What does this fold into?
Amino acid sequence: MPEDIHLKINGQAVSAPAGSTILKAASSVGVEIPTICYHDYCTSNGLCRICVVEVSGARTLTPACVAKVNEGMEIQTDSPRVRRARKTILEMLAASVDLSDAPDIQAMLVEYQAQPDRYPDAQTRSPEVIQDNPMYIRDYAKCILCWRCVQVCAEDAQFTYAINFSGRGYRTQIGTFFNRPIPETTCVFCGQCIGVCPTGALKPKKQWLMEQGQTTDEIMRLTRSQRRAKTKKTTQPAPEGGAA
It folds into this structure.
């Protein structure tokens, strides 16, 4: 059994197993630290930085989802500096991403009194919705680049590797290799990427069509026709003398 580490969180004495993250140690004593990119069943990468905390003696704020506890640590999870950082992060997200389908993030905007219009000159992400398969849509205007979908499609669960990152800086985006349509990738339509998406960037096709005001009959017609097209394409025989 690993030895316990002794620290203080918001002045409260805490014991946590060696190797625990600050996030887990805080949760064990009922101290909730907000998260966005973190998911219990995905690898933590500390991307969104909404979980930052103030560690005594540290020059910068520390991401609680990846930082491990150390003996004698003194941590503040809700100091003015921490709240200011979270507020700024939320404001930057709201300035560039459509958060209309992200209720948890919307609640954080209210809690931290963030101003969604603080950066009126920010460039908003506005790619078109991708409807290249009958099962789900990809609306990257709502994507916050949290990595959850990429991770769950890879080593964290499915080992399918149908989607990944491309680009750098502001041009970073999630997509398929060589921007191929989803049916032409290794995707097996398991739906796990939809399950871990926190913002509605990935959504079941039928749900999305209902939100667009389509009738049940129209939804069945649209999704069935797309399934038939996919089946026809995958079962079409190769030209005589050609490779399969």
